[in-house]
Design brief:
It is a single chain. This protein has 430 residues and is an alpha/beta fold. It folds into three domains: 2-110 and 245-312, FAD/NAD(P)-binding domain (3-Layer(bba) Sandwich), CATH 3.50.50; 126-242, FAD/NAD(P)-binding domain; 332-423, 2-Layer Sandwich (Enolase-like, domain 1). The protein is built from ten helices and 25 strands. The strands form six sheets. Strands 1, 2, 3, 4, 5, 6 and 18 form a seven-stranded mixed β-sheet that branches. It has a five-stranded parallel β-sheet with strand order 8-15-9-10-11, covered by helices on one side. Strand 24 and strand 25 form a beta hairpin. Helix 1 (13-25) packs parallel to helix 7 (298-312) and helix 8 crosses helix 10. The protein is globular, with a radius of gyration of 23 Å. The two termini are 38 Å apart.
């Protein structure tokens, strides 16, 4: 058994943030970081661009190759944590080694949802798409099997990013989405229709209100997908993009409290002393609702990790809350959404929309009590940062609604006191 002052499980945004948070407060304390993946810290959102040929492997780096050496971090890459024992203050790894800690950050992320009863889902040619290795595996399979057609099961963010990568490689792609529209959780019907139009223009076949009944095989490999109505879609490759859940396997059976994710307070501390959680595995404060929710987005993961690191090292930093955001550009059409995008009726929300049929630009704002609580932008997304600042700065926008909808809206459109609060709001979350 070895031991360390700070132990970090996870080598992605939250883990990197934690290292930098610790070192801001404690330049000398021993840090050990372990992660299942063998790669040095990389920008996970770029895996679709890697597969699509828009970035090379060198462009994947999230920090320089000597980052951990410069920060005096002992790394155990390719080592999977298997169990946390908070009573003994140890982590047991899959290879049998045991590491003791004084302070622990759990930032092992999420795991893709795979349908448990889908025949053929474990066959060669069926992939999830959340890691660098997934991108490598898909690329190799396409090349080895001369794949020309693919089916993506799921029309959410991961599914559409998969579509972007596969179409960039020249594949004909069919999307199966169980909901009535793509990106149903974050976009309304108008925005989804615009994105669906861009997909169709790029030659993507979109099938909503349906999913796979089984994955068909020929010669032991994927040959297509059968739908519930008995119809078939030819495919040499299938991507399962149903969603991602926090990976709670590490803390199963322990005293660490969980719901959907590991529950963390405003310091990113769990209910167990000296154990913290950050990133996709954490369930922490959500800005608008004031509830604890899992928000699996990259900037949020880094911010949580950094704050956890400061607090682990004896500092004092408060997590102000995360804001659910999604940004995706598919087939040349950009979309950004944040906060409450489909508010329930009868609870005091006000919805403002503006659609330009000629340019396909769409703007939707959701307000409550004269405060912006959510938005959807399609096409022209240049002002997204300012609109986000209005939410995070809790700026009252009474009397400014029409300005917010205007295509030339910017900071100059706001009173000076509002500009200051927008800047301050963004600064809290930077």
């Amino acid at each position: 058994m070895t031991s360390t002052k700070y132990l970090i499980i996870g080598n992605s945004a939250a883990g990197v943030g934690c290292v930098e948070g610790i070192r801001q407060t404690d330049p000398q304390g021993e840090i050990t970081l372990l992660a299942k993946e063998t790669e040095h810290a990389y920008s996970r959102p770029l895996i679709t661009y890697l597969l699509g040929g828009k970035v090379d492997e060198a462009g994947m780096a999230y920090r320089p190759a000597d980052f951990y050496a410069q920060q005096r971090v002992k790394t155990l890459l390719g080592v999977e944590a298997a169990k946390v024992d908070p009573a003994a203050k140890t982590v047991t790894c899959a290879d049998g080694q045991v590491i003791g800690y004084e302070k622990l950050l759990i930032a092992n992320g999420g795991k893709p949802i795979t349908p448990p009863n889908l025949p053929g889902s474990d066959a060669p040619g069926v992939f999830t798409f959340t890691t660098w290795q997934d991108a490598r595996d898909i690329e190799a399979y396409i090349a080895a099997n001369a794949v020309k057609e693919a089916v993506v099961i799921g029309g959410g963010l991961i599914g559409l990013k998969s579509v972007e990568a596969l179409t960039a490689r020249g594949l004909k792609v069919t999307v199966l989405e169980l909901a009535p529209r793509i990106l149903a959780v974050t976009l309304d019907q108008d925005a989804s229709d615009l994105l669906a139009g861009a997909l169709a223009k790029a030659g993507v076949t979109l099938m909503t209100n349906t999913t796979a009944q089984r994955i068909d095989l020929a010669g032991g490999k994927v040959s297509g997908v059968t739908l519930p109505d008995g119809s078939q879609v030819a495919a040499g490759l299938v991507v399962l993009a149903i969603g991602v859940l926090p990976d709670l396997s590490l803390v199963a059976g322990s005293a660490i409290a969980t719901e959907r994710g590991i529950l963390a307070d405003e310091r990113l501390a769990t209910n167990v002393a000296d154990v913290y959680a950050a990133g996709d595995v954490a369930q922490a404060l959500e800005l608008i609702s004031g509830e604890r929710r899992s928000i699996p987005i990259w900037p949020n993961a880094y911010r949580q990790g950094f704050i956890a690191g400061v607090n682990m090292a004896g500092g004092e930093k408060i997590y102000e809350g995360g804001l659910a955001m999604n940004s995706v550009e598919i087939c040349g059409l950009a979309t950004i959404s944040a906060g409450v995008t489909s508010p329930p009726e009868g609870q005091g929300y006000e919805v403002l929309t503006k659609l330009d049929p000629k340019t396909k630009n769409y703007r939707k704002l959701v307000l409550k009590d004269h405060h912006l609580v959510g938005y959807v932008l399609v096409g022209d997304v240049d002002r997204a940062g300012i609109i986000t600042g209005l939410i995070k700065g809790r700026v009252e926008v009474k009397g400014l609604e029409e300005k917010l909808l205007a295509p030339d809206f910017g900071l100059i459109s706001l009173p000076s006191v509002h500009r200051e609060r927008v800047t301050a709001g963004l600064g809290v979350w930077s």
